[in-house]
From TrEMBL:
TM stretches of this protein: 29-48, 54-77, 106-126, 138-160, 167-188, 194-213, 234-256, 268-287, 307-328, 348-372, 379-397, 403-421
Localization: Cell membrane
The keyword Transmembrane helix is assigned to this record: yes
Membrane topology: Multi-pass membrane protein
Name this polypeptide is given: Polysaccharide biosynthesis protein
Amino acid sequence: MTEVGGSASPIGATGASGGPVARGSVARVGAATVLTAICGYAVIYLAARDLAPSGFSIFGVFWGAFGLVTGAANGLLQETTREVRAAPYVDALSPPARSRTRPLRVAGLIGLAAAIGIAGSAPLWSGRVFVEARWLSVGLLSSGLAGFCLHATLLGMLAGTNRWAHYGALMVTDAVIRVSVAVATVAISWGLVGFLWATVAGAVAWLIMLVVSPTTRTAARLMTPGSTATFLRGAGHSITAAGASAILVMGFPVLLKLTSDELGARGGVIILAVTLTRAPLLVPLTAMQGNLIAHFVDERADRIRALSAPATLIGGIGAGGVFAAAMVGPWVLRVAFGEQYQTSGALLGWLTAAAVSIAMLTLTGAAAVAAALHRAYSLGWVGATVASGLLLLLPLHLETRTIVALLCGPLVGIGVHLLALGRSERSRPSQHTEGG
């Protein structure tokens, strides 16, 4: 990898993007993803072992709340990756634009606004969400989100400039800080409060990387073509879509509860099954959003064709997962979690197929972001989430409507994305403008 040029230049030099996304970059991010996942599960394991069930439920709600808001903030990663990656192509087609934007500075303002919004609205909702350590939870959620906005944007800048080793290092730094605080919490018997801190502690990882890494500091100073308003408009669509994605992926148990009179014990089994069957595909795919967007920006001549290779890979892995889930999934569930978690191989197989559907939606969404089809991208994810919510209202058995919602809802979003990508391919040279 070549070094990024000038400290305050726009992406400027064509070497900034460093050429096509290589297999090595996928390997680096893949390794970082594995370490990040291990650390995340370690925090949950430590909390479950250290806290009573009632305390763990409080921790779990906060963990989920932080996951939802940071999931939405991941839209900044997507938009920043696209803007940074596409800058050399934009400047090659036309003289460098006079208006330039510093993404990290904009992210700081967005994070500050989000933190104020959460803290200011907390009296309206925090009492129903946080039953213990209420105001500490609000404060940590607000400050953690502000830090994560900078974290996600810095990830996007590193992805856009092919700094995959640093991209992975930032991911791992976040995860290691979390698990370190969790271990310390157990060691000093800090209890619930310590695990709340552990949840958000990684939000300072971006600052640590800026201090210790000259390459990261160089990437952080880059500027992108266009005004701040243009960047915010694109980021707004990406954040909307990422928020819908977070609801559909992390917040599905909430959707299930809102559309059911009573979940009961069976609902708990289904929620666990949904979580376990989707993680092997969606955790690494989410972590590799930077790789995917950079790949589709580079393949701007034919993004529909560029979808075929990753889609085939996802489909192949998914097919193997469906078979494995149907054959050995029920046994694994009983052995790992106890005899009370009884379910059929058919349910686990269908839920794995549904995870493939969401993975494909994630893939087409990355291609839409790369093509600057912001409206189509957000509409696809929002449409998928709304469709899944409506399908959960069908008068069917709980297991059946869960499968139908998770399998068919994403198809709506996939259709929106593919339609917009096809239209964009036919209407070149408008590929560098926002579409939708």
